[in-house]
Amino acid sequence: QHYKSITFIEIMNRICCRLLQLRLSNARTQLNGSIRNSSVAAVGNNVKSAEETADQDRDAPETLEQEGELLSMSSDVFHTRTLTVHEAFRRFRPPRHAWLHSFTDLSKRGLVELHPVVFSANPRIDLIHETVKWQDQCVREDEIAYMRSELPGSGRKLRPQKGTGAARMKDKRAPHFKFGGRPLGRRPRDHGFDIDLNVLAAGFSAICTSKHAQGDFYLVDSLQNFTIPSLIGFKQLLNTESVLFVSGYEGLSASQNTEICFHPGVDLLTSETVHPKAILQHTNLVMDYAAFTQLESWVLELGQE
Question: What letters, b where the CB count within 10 A reaches 16 and e where it falls short, cover 177-199?
Answer without folding.
Answer: eeebbeeeeeeeeeeeeebeeee
